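Below sits my pick:
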Amino acid sequence: MQEIINVSLSHRSNHLISQFYNCLEPLLYDADHENDVFLNQSVDKVNKTVSYTPRALLWDAKLGNGSLGTYQYVSENDHVDSLKREDDKNVLNTAQTVQTHDRIRKSPYQLALDQGNAQLPKLNDDIAQYWSDYSKLIYDPSSFNLLQDWYHDSEHQSNAPNFQNLHQVYFDKYEVGLEQFKERYSNEFFDNNLHLQLEKCDNLQGFNIVTEVDDAWGGFAASLLMELKDELPKVSYFTYAWNKDDVVSLKEPIHSTKTKFQALCNKIRATISLVQESDLFFPIYADSKKSFWQSTGETVLLFDSINSIFHGSRKHSSTDINVRKMSHLTDVLTLGESKRNIVSKLNVDHYTSYSFYERLPYYKNSKGQSSFTFTECEIDRVCHDKATKFHFNTYPWTNSDTVPESHRVCTEAILGVTEKSRDVFKTWEDLVSRYFRYDSDREELKDNLATISQEYEHGFYDDEDSGLDM
């Protein structure tokens, strides 16, 4: 068994992980399918039942879990007003209830799930505001981690968490996230929840880190990943980074707003750190015009396809279904060049790209209007007509009713390391040189961006200045 733990940081990331496990849920009814990679199996010998909990560590701000209580499926007494026994009357009479916010009620979908209804309501933006509104699998209490001083904004979901629910100071700076994890959460996280998850693994092969990079979650993830690698240096680390549109992708003036400029600064710093610490880095586009439920329900086709490589059917031999380790995909996509690890081509069924880098303009001195492809692989979920190291045959895509109806077909995914990453990092290098005039890390950022961009150069370039005009 080669277990993989999903570490999800931010509300958007938790939506994606929920969609992923919802798509795995139908496979639990397939006796021939290998489920132990992403799910922990518990056997009740007395009742002769088997249950599964996700191998996951979810980070969110307070209120981000919605109606889901940490011990909801363990204890019935999460709340004072749920005590019903006669000998608890004194507790009820003397207890003081401090209400900090209105209780979040369960969604109609989650109520129907809890009641075992065969007919589930159709999801929409209104009843799927929280990832827990439609999560089908039951998480172990050790999966949940909360930012103690920061609150999720339910009215403005795309906003970063705010301090003490006052809507004045936001979790929106790379440095804040970096410091918060290191100073406040590191010791407790490693000693408790991470340790409990690791105890459930026989032979851990790696982690999927899913995070935002436009706000403080990027710094939080960078700090967590650096310490995680120090603790477990011999396993694989794949980072899936959510990128929102910025002034570069939108072709707006750099200082169009202070908020957009700050988000770009966060993105550059977080990306550098995460690329340096990851075996593979996937820059995913986060569509802010769509709800978290809808956008992650679309992106899960890519995330599920990549991770379908690492588990499959017990009844098929490796020649039929290529079940590989994370390290094998890393070797295929980097061809031994470990520093060329940004997977900038992220296509599903050829025509749908989930890559944020594909949305950015070409650098001024790029050669033509196409990017050289260093390496590419195909994840085949239907035909299984090839058997090479650049072609992975996996099990058919399993739909979930929580995925939007417009995205319930997936036949293949194409992953590639391309020259496009050079355009991105050269553009960022110019921006840092021009606009980070008084930043103490300006020269370090420029050096890092130049070093990374060189890894994606192919052939010769015109050395003239880019003339970037923003």
Summary: Residues 74-87, 465-470 have pLDDT under 50 and may be disordered. The CA atoms of residues 309 and 329 lie 8 Å apart. Residues 258-277 form the longest helix (20 residues).
